[in-house]
Design brief:
The protein is mainly α. Helices cover 60% and strands 0% of the residues. Helix 9 crosses helix 10, helix 11 runs parallel beside helix 13 and helix 12 packs antiparallel against helix 13. The longest helix is centred in the last third of the chain and has 34 residues.
């Protein structure tokens, strides 16, 4: 059964068969390891996680080791499904190191690493990710919520939206990666690939509670991309009830940024006028000369 091709039911059936065998196979450590590894790379079960039936101290190293090494399946792997439920056991350092070699990996393997890294990695790692715009634009070969061949930016956005359980904050890493995501989604040729409404809304509602991006020079770009994406979403033919919420969230954030840009411009003008007194006109100079 371990050698069987992947199906949605394989991980459940394999785990059930192994655990039902009882004490006969209990001491065969090599077999147990093979079952764990095959379960981890199989497509995630629709209901209870088969990997969760093993102790966490066994599941964690296997899941972390095999993320980014899965085969083409019918959905996300059991490994990432398990790790998303065990955040404290995610080995971010190992996953980040593996993601640096994303160009040598299959698209579906990259997508799982992208998701976890954007959800749980420290800001220094996000800042590093933001410097590589190619990884966000690269297409993923796996469907995502009914949309086929979406860019990795969709999985990055899902990862960022998972940070909303934390206190709202601003940082170079979060803002840099979000800028790359907005740029990628705005430039997509296939409008159907933009159907990440709920993730956009969730992240922007969280992000809007934090201070504006630390680099004021990025505000115009953020505002422009948010407006463009809102316009694209508005033109799409979709029955998704979350679309309107995403449009409103994008426009609201653009409004906030544009007000901040205008305020900063007024403050700069006022400051310059205070430190640069008016230059005397030719008439006043001539008048002063005659008096002398």
């Amino acid at each position: 059964m371990i050698a069987q091709p992947d199906t949605r039911e394989l991980s459940t059936v394999l785990t059930e068969a192994y655990l039902s065998a009882g004490s006969e196979l209990e001491h065969d450590l090599d077999l147990r390891k093979r079952v764990l590894e095959r379960t981890a790379v199989a497509s995630a079960a629709e209901k209870q996680s088969p990997l969760a039936r093993f102790p966490s101290e066994e599941g964690a190293p296997v899941a972390n080791m095999l993320i980014g090494k899965t085969s083409e399946g019918h959905g996300i792997s059991e490994a990432i499904s398990w790790l998303l439920s065990h955040r404290q056991l995610v080995n971010v350092t190992a996953l980040t190191g593996r993601l640096r070699g994303w160009r040598r990996m299959r698209p579906n393997q990259v997508s799982e690493l992208i998701l976890l890294v954007h959800a749980y990695s420290p800001d220094t790692v996000l800042a590093e990710m933001a410097s590589d715009n190619d990884v966000y634009k690269a297409p993923n070969a796996r469907s995502f919520r009914g949309q086929a061949y979406v860019p990795h930016a969709a999985f990055a956005l899902l990862g960022l939206s998972m940070r909303t359980l934390e206190e709202p904050s601003t940082s170079p890493g979060i803002d840099g990666t979000f800028l790359q995501i907005l740029r990628t989604l705005t430039e997509l040729k296939n409008g159907a690939d933009l159907a990440q409404y709920s993730n956009l809304t969730t992240f922007l509602e969280w992000r809007s509670k934090a201070p504006l991006p630390q680099e004021a020079a990025t505000w115009p770009k953020f505002a422009s991309l948010a407006r463009c994406l809102a316009i694209r979403l508005a033109k799409m033919k979709s029955q998704d009830p979350d679309r309107e919420s995403a449009i409103n969230a994008l426009n609201s954030w653009a409004d906030t940024l544009e007000r901040a840009i205008a305020t900063k411009a007024r403050e700069q003008t006022t400051s310059e006028s205070q430190f640069n007194p008016k230059t005397p006109t030719k008439r006043s100079v001539k008048r002063n000369t005659k008096r002398k």
